[in-house]
Amino acid sequence: MKQNNSLKMRFMAIRFAMWDLHLYLDTHPNDAAAKQLLQKYEQQYEEIAAAYTEKYGPFEASAAGSGEAWLKAPWPWTNCGGNA
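and the corresponding structure tokens:
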């Protein structure tokens, strides 16, 4: 379960950083370093999302495609008690 939480925390931190960079680039569209950093975070985001999905199932409904995988994946309370 700790690995699950670790991946979730990294996923959320990178998503936050990406959002923050998007806001920054709204007002500084010519900042090449910020654009490069955003691309780096986007790549990390994809890698972590893929790792999480492969190991635990879709992190969010939009990652499940048609939604069937989201419904078939274990619900958060399914693995309560450290049985993950």
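(Above: one complete record from the training split.) Residues 2-78 form one domain.
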